[in-house]
Write a structure and sequence with these properties.
Layout (H helix, E strand, L loop, with lengths): L18 H11 L5 H9 L8 H8 L16 E10 L4 E10 L6 E7 L7 H12 L3 E5 L12 H9 L3 H16 L4 E10 L1 H12 L6 E5 L16 E6 L3 H4 L2 H11 L3 E6 L16 H19 L1
Parallel strand pairs: 3-4, 3-5, 5-6, 6-7, 7-8
Antiparallel strand pairs: 1-2, 2-4
Helix pairs in contact: 1-2
């Protein structure tokens, strides 16, 4: 599913892949270095006995590993829906998943992707949310460009080429669309990952009257001058090895305290940025499951 080459899995015994390889991938995935630099850095590890194939199959996403809830699961119903976004790109589109057992209206959760569009991992997260009993909606920022293109490299490039302010407006419109949806009881939560984590923080600060609970996974905070507006309770999920994101936490925490926000932060030990994403080698199963259990319990507490 990715444009970087990867062959069959390498079953040769080898020492653990060095942390710097995961750090380089994080820089590459967030546009801080280009592909050539990323590959050049990985090549330096081949002298230590790591094959390039092993490095790439470990670091790059394999979405066959990410499906925890099938779209054919009898407990859910999945389809796509469009919504108006007059201040954004005019129209948004997303993946709407509802529990089949839903009678009348239920609590709703906006699921917000990373910086590469609505890929299979995020679609599966939306199905997990619905299977837990919520109306789930996962917008695709790339809808104006034809939608997620099928691999993360192209998706990242497409999203990077778009007007970020309009993308943010599209997600604000999506939040309002979901909160007032005919299947929603008017209680809205949001969970997001990386760029999506930032958007959860932004929604909490920009439209406090819309968001009732937020769970940002390894996301940067909204602009400092906006943080005083936050009203919704927040469950903040951070990874110990994610120094790039964690640098912003002390100041953000101070601002949350100053604003009287009900927040909880969990720092997951020995985890990398993206530890919840089960399609890559950064996945930490034990901590990802714990973080997800906390997420669902948090939404059940605040959106009932």
């Amino acid at each position: 599913m990715n444009t970087l080459p990867a062959g069959p899995a390498d079953t040769t015994p080898h020492p653990p892949i060095p942390q710097e390889a995961f750090d380089w991938y994080d820089e590459y995935a967030h546009g801080l270095i280009d592909r050539r630099t990323f590959m050049s850095r990985l090549a330096t590890l081949t002298a230590a006995g790591f094959s390039m194939n092993l490095l790439l199959t470990t670091l790059m996403p394999n979405y066959a590993n990410a499906e925890q809830v099938s779209f054919n699961d009898p407990d859910i119903k999945a389809r796509y829906a469009t919504y108006p976004s007059p201040e954004g790109h005019g129209e948004g589109r997303g993946y709407l998943v509802t529990p089949t057992a839903l009678k009348g209206k239920g609590p709703a959760v906006l699921v917000i992707h990373e910086n590469r569009g609505l890929n299979p991992y995020i679609a599966d997260v939306a199905r997990r949310v619905a299977k837990a009993g919520f109306v789930a909606f996962a917008p695709d920022a790339l809808h104006p460009k034809g939608g997620y293109p099928g691999n993360d490299d192209e998706g990242r490039a497409l999203q990077g080429s778009m007007d970020r302010a309009k993308i943010e407006k599209d997600f604000i419109a999506a939040a309002k669309f979901l909160k007032t949806h005919e299947l929603s009881n008017g209680k809205l939560g949001a969970v997001g990952f990386c760029f999506g984590g930032y958007l959860v923080n932004l929604l909490a600060a920009l439209v406090p009257e819309v968001l009732d609970a937020g769970v940002p996974f390894y996301g940067t905070p909204a602009a400092k001058e906006l943080r005083k507006n936050i009203k919704a309770p927040l469950l903040i999920q951070l990874a110990e090895l994610d120094t790039r994101i964690n640098e912003s936490w002390p100041e953000y925490e101070a601002d949350l305290k100053a604003a009287g926000v009900n927040y909880t932060m969990h720092m997951y030990p020995k985890c990398n940025h993206g530890f919840h994403n089960d399609s890559t080698g950064r996945y930490d199963e034990k901590n990802a499951q714990l973080a997800w259990e906390r997420t669902i319990a948090f939404f059940k507490q605040h959106l009932a």
